[in-house]
Amino acid sequence: MRNIVILISGTGSNMAAIVRAAAQEDWAQRLGARVACVISNRADAGGLAFARDHGLDCAVVAHRDYPSRQAFDAALVEQIAPFDAPDAPALVVLAGFMRILTPEFTARYAGRLLNIHPSLLPAFPGLHTHQRAIDAGCRFAGATVHQVTAELDHGPILDQAVVPVLPGDDANTLAQRVLSQEHRLYVRALRRLLAAPA
Ligand code: GRF
């Protein structure tokens, strides 16, 4: 059984979409994978309640408790370790996880560390993607699931979803339209990855 470890910082709606799909589609039986653990860098992340309610192992690794990025990432590795085996390496899924990871961390999980970013990468890496897309006059926006490498929001693209930017959109209305597609996109990308031969 392959463990999926999901890292969040906030609402966790992408995490919830993955947890629901894994249950509804019986990923354990069909894809040999289960969502095993949810880790948040914030104790007040809304998504933790959902994860607890669904019987998932939950951990808070508060970045403020660590003196450096290296120390924080080492604590994350320690939390992930029980779910990570040489013959069944964990998939580490960033879902609204708002910390920059060290190159040591991204190298350790290379090829099995995923992120979702709310833009059509390589356009608009970083923050405030929706406002930047509106300001640039984009007619389309979207989201990208990609492998995580040392360079922020730059790893190989696994899948994308496109939505229109509508007249009168502000960053919030556009973010909502993108987010509803993110949920389907992340589930689809994970399903495909898990189904691919090792
Ligand atoms: C999503 O738009 C994600 O792409 C971005 O932050 C938002 C998090 O949403 N990085 P949620 O926590 O999954 O609800």
Describe the structure.
The chain has helices spanning 13-24, 27-31, 47-53, 69-80, 103-108, 129-135, 171-195; strands spanning 2-8, 33-40, 57-60, 91-94, 113-117, 140-147, 157-164. β4, α5 and β5 form a beta-alpha-beta unit. The relative contact order is 0.16. By secondary structure, the chain is α/β, with parallel strands linked by helices. It is built from seven helices and seven strands. It has a seven-stranded mixed sheet, with helices on both faces. α1 (13-24) packs parallel to α7 (171-195) and α6 packs across α7. 37% of the residues lie in helices and 22% in strands. The longest helix has 25 residues, at 171-195. The model has no long low-confidence stretch (mean pLDDT 97). It has one domain (2-195): Rossmann fold (3-Layer(aba) Sandwich), CATH 3.40.50.170. The protein binds 5-O-phosphono-beta-D-ribofuranosylamine.
Q: Give the overall average pLDDT.
A: 97
Query: What does the largest sheet look like?
Result: 7 strands, mixed
Order of the strands making up the biggest sheet: 3-2-1-4-5-6-7
Text of the CATH class: Alpha Beta
Q: Could you give the distance between the termini?
A: 13 Å
Class derived from helix and strand content: alpha/beta
The number of helical runs is 7
Q: What portion of the residues fall into strands of 2 or more residues? A: 15-25%
Order of H and E elements? EHHEHEHEHEHEEH
What small molecules accompany the polymer chains?
Answer: 5-O-phosphono-beta-D-ribofuranosylamine
Return residue spans where pLDDT drops below 50 for at least 5 consecutive residues: none
CATH fold descriptor: Rossmann fold
